[in-house]
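Hello,

Our lab assistant flagged a job as stuck in the queue for most of the afternoon. It eventually completed. Since we weren't sure the result was trustworthy after the delay, we are filing this so someone can double-check. Below is the sequence as submitted and the structure that was eventually returned. Let us know if re-running is recommended.
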Amino acid sequence: MIKKENKMTAISRKTPAENVIALVKCNKCGKCCSLDSCYIFEDELKRIADFLGITEEKLKKKCLVESEKFNTKAFKVKTVSFSKPFGPCMFFNKRKKECSIHSVKPTHCRIGNPCMNHGEAVSIWFTLNYFVNEKDPESIRQWNLYLKSHPTIQGGELKDLIPDAKKLQKILSYEILTIQDLEKYDEYYSKISKSKIQSKIQKK
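-- returned structure --
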């Protein structure tokens, strides 16, 4: 687990987005934007498309590629890679060293600043809140593999995401394979729990 440096830079999975954004101050060095692009989610498409004066469909077709991380789908801005595995974001104005959609840029851009001393913690916060889905068994299994060789922040351990140890074990052992399986598991044990409560009430 990443240690908290002080109260100002303490970040946990449940830290509100506005607090995380407030910690990150872009100095417009261009390092982030010149090496890669950002992730964009469905609820962010409209404001970016409106700003560019195009439809959401055109934005997807001309500027974005479909992406997936921890079994969660998202979009990623295309890069000017020239056949390399990395390159500048297509919205980055290299001459001016600034983002051409700065006023409407997505959350990932607002917090994705590795130059800051809490950059890694912020990056993990974003992954936990936008990609790791505790309602998706496969997402949890992939996060489990990640944790074997990477650090996390407070609230990012498996036991924090799935407090029920029995359920977690079934997910990791593939006994609970899909989202539908997990929903059935939760429904079954919810009924058992209600039955026990009703039985105790009747005994009284």
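-- support follow-up --
The delay was a queue issue, not a problem with the job. The result is valid. The two ends are 46 Å apart (CA to CA). DSSP finds ten helices and five strands in the chain.
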